[in-house]
Amino acid sequence: MSERMAEVETMNADDGIKKETKLFGLIAEHASPNRLFVLLNKEIKANNADAMMIPMNIREDDFYYTLSNMKKSHVNGAYIAEEYQESAVELLDEADEFVQVYNKCDFVLRDGERLIGTYLEKNNTLLGEDLAKEIFEKYIR
């Protein structure tokens, strides 16, 4: 298994987490198979940024607790998988116009103890690598 993990190269530039590292979660019931975190971490590594996205396998009954407690965590933000995008809306302190129009939130930023949400996948135009690049450009670079 360790050989497979070495091939994936999902970590940041120095393959470690420091106090200054920007941490992002990928919140899904089955986050590990979701390749977004791998694609984003490759983008982070290619740009030598000090950030990382970590998959977070969260059951439905733990979703509210997890997202609401992000306000007091060291996690800078999270991508929300499709199964939780509608539920995330009610936990936001601020929502952009896309969240308001689509009533879905797929990306959350923590600003102090506030959660600010957006909906990046509007019209299904951002998927896979394009979605990873959008997250990197807007929220990590």
Topology of this structure?
Blueprint: H1 2-8, E1 22-28, H2 36-46, E2 51-57, H3 60-69, E3 75-80, H4 85-89, E4 94-95, H5 97-102, E5 107-111, E6 114-118, H6 128-140
Helix pairs in contact: 2-6
What characteristics describe this protein?
141 residues, alpha/beta, 6 helices, globular, disordered N terminus
- Proportion of residues in helical segments: 25-40%
* Rg result: 14 Å
Q: What class would the helix/strand composition place it in?
A: alpha/beta
Mean pLDDT: 87
Describe the structure.
The chain is α/β, with parallel strands linked by helices. The chain is 37% helix and 23% strand. A 6-stranded mixed beta sheet has the order 2-1-3-5-6-4. α2 crosses α6 (128-140). The protein is globular, with a radius of gyration of 14 Å. The N and C termini lie far apart (32 Å).
Could you give a short description of this structure?
The chain is of the alpha/beta class and 141 residues long.
